[in-house]
Structures are given as structure tokens and as C-alpha cells.
Specification:
The protein is mainly alpha-helical. Helices cover 88% and strands 0% of the residues. It has helices at residues 3-19, 23-54. The longest helix is centred in the C-terminal third of the chain and has 32 residues, at 23-54.
């Protein structure tokens, strides 16, 4: 999947999810997904750092 198709799919998914929710519910879901993304980025950075140290 190329970048344009990926972003179009994500946009379609967001619109589909948002259609049945109240604004407050959308806000909460947004916060949850942002925290999930941040946590996954932290885990990836920590693994990269530990992997780099193990190779030294």
C-alpha cells in the first residue's frame, strides 16, 4: 500500500468511526489513540537504543 492509499484509508476509517459518535466521544477516542501512538513510539525508541547498546 502506498502512502496516498494509506492516508485515504485512515481518513475513511476516521470518518466512519466519527459518524456514530458524539463530539466528546470522538475527543476521548482521539486522546486514546494519541496515547497509544506515543507509547508505541517510546517502545520502539527504547528497543532501538537497547539494540544499539547490545551491538557495542
Amino acid at each position: 500500500m502506498n502512502a496516498c492509499n494509506l492516508t485515504a484509508a485512515i481518513t475513511a476509517l476516521a470518518n466512519t468511526i466519527a459518524c456514530g459518535l458524539k463530539t466528546e466521544e470522538i475527543s476521548l477516542l482521539s486522546s486514546l489513540f494519541m496515547q497509544l501512538g506515543d507509547t508505541l513510539a517510546t517502545i520502539a525508541a527504547q528497543r532501538a537504543l537497547c539494540g544499539a547498546r547490545e551491538k557495542e
